[in-house]
């Protein structure tokens, strides 16, 4: 007979001898694959969650990324996704559309697979970007390369236009400084001439 007891995070922490703070962190990262009931402080986890938490700790200790852990959990425990009262609206809708528990399980499994695939894609893209796309331009879709090339050309054109404007402004500034010096010299000459006229008068 299956264990129907519900456990709090504190109780699971004692069972696994793991700090509560660590379990809270895992809970926030992998909440969608943990069978639970309730929300907030009243949230409780089914007995299967104890084993899932244990697996999470083991896989993270092996150096697996969060995306890899999520994918493996979705493979091992597909029925747990969205289970209990704390399931997401999307999972609830999928269960209702499935026409009962049996249909709901299939929909939840699909949601788990989609989540795992999305996480894996994001991880792969991040790794490729981090390695500087070792595959070269072929590693990107043609449309993406075209868009990047177009944006780069536009940026270069804008930079060239700005450089031209800067050169024009610099020339204008030089001319204004020259005009100012000429005006100052002209005014000084006028003042000097007036002074001489007064002295002679």
From TrEMBL:
The keyword Cell inner membrane does not apply. One of its GO terms (molecular function) is DNA binding. It comes from the Bacteria. GO terms for biological process: regulation of DNA-templated transcription. SUPFAM superfamilies: Putative DNA-binding domain (SSF46955). InterPro entries: DNA-bd_dom_put_sf (IPR009061), MerR-type_HTH_dom (IPR000551). Gene3D superfamilies: 1.10.1660.10. Signal peptide: none annotated. It comes from Solidesulfovibrio magneticus str. Maddingley MBC34. This is HTH merR-type domain-containing protein. Residues 7-73 form the HTH merR-type domain. The keyword Coiled coil applies. Residues 145-186 form a coiled coil. Keywords: Coiled coil.
């Amino acid at each position: 007979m299956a264990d129907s007891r519900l456990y709090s995070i504190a109780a699971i922490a004692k069972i696994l001898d793991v700090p509560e703070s660590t379990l809270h962190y895992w809970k926030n990262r992998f909440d969608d694959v943990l069978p639970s009931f309730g929300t907030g402080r009243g949230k409780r986890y089914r007995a299967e969650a104890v084993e899932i938490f244990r697996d999470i700790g083991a896989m993270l200790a092996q150096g697996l990324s969060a995306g890899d852990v999520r994918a493996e959990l979705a493979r091992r425990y597909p029925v747990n996704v969205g289970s209990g009262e704390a399931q997401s609206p999307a999972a609830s809708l999928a269960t209702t559309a499935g026409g009962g528990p049996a249909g709901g399980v299939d929909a939840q499994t699909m949601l788990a697979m989609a989540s795992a695939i999305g996480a894996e894609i994001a991880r792969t893209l991040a790794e490729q970007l981090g390695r500087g796309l070792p595959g070269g331009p072929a590693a990107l879709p043609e449309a993406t390369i075209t868009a990047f090339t177009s944006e780069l050309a536009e940026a270069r054109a804008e930079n060239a236009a700005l450089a031209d404007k800067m050169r024009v402004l610099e020339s204008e500034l030089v001319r204004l400084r020259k005009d100012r010096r000429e005006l100052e010299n002209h005014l000084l000459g006028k003042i000097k001439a007036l002074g001489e006229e007064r002295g002679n008068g």
